[in-house]
Specification:
The protein is mainly β and 114 residues long. Helix content is 5%, strand content 36%.
């Protein structure tokens, strides 16, 4: 789970339920984490995209490019995280050239570039 998604939606650590009789994984899921605690003790919310106060944000554009890590074609690594509560949603076709992530019913849906 990319960190930038965990900053806007309450996804925490990946967790596995294990059948103690068979030692097989029954289910995996991300724990719900509504805030993180900074080094000095202040809490920071991770639920911005679930809060109506942030409905003015339509989406977040993310890139991991830096001076040492970059794709052959700039922008090729872009990921769009759509705000499920955005008042003015961005049409998926506007960014069909990059990966897009949508949040519905507590789950993420990834859409690969066209």
């Amino acid at each position: 789970m990319p960190y930038f998604i965990k900053a806007f939606l309450p996804f925490g650590n990946l967790t596995a339920s294990v059948d103690t009789k068979t030692a097989k994984i029954v289910e995996t899921f991300y724990q719900r984490r509504e805030f993180v605690v900074k080094a000095k003790g202040a809490s920071v919310s991770t639920t911005a995209f679930l809060d109506p106060i942030f409905s003015f944000v339509s989406a977040v554009l993310h890139s991991e490019v830096d001076c040492a890590k970059h794709p052959a074609i700039l922008g090729e690594d872009f990921i769009i995280l759509h705000n499920p509560n955005g008042l003015h949603p961005i049409e998926p076709t506007a960014f069909q050239w990059c990966e897009q992530i949508f949040y519905w019913d507590g789950k993420l849906k990834r859409v690969s570039p066209a």
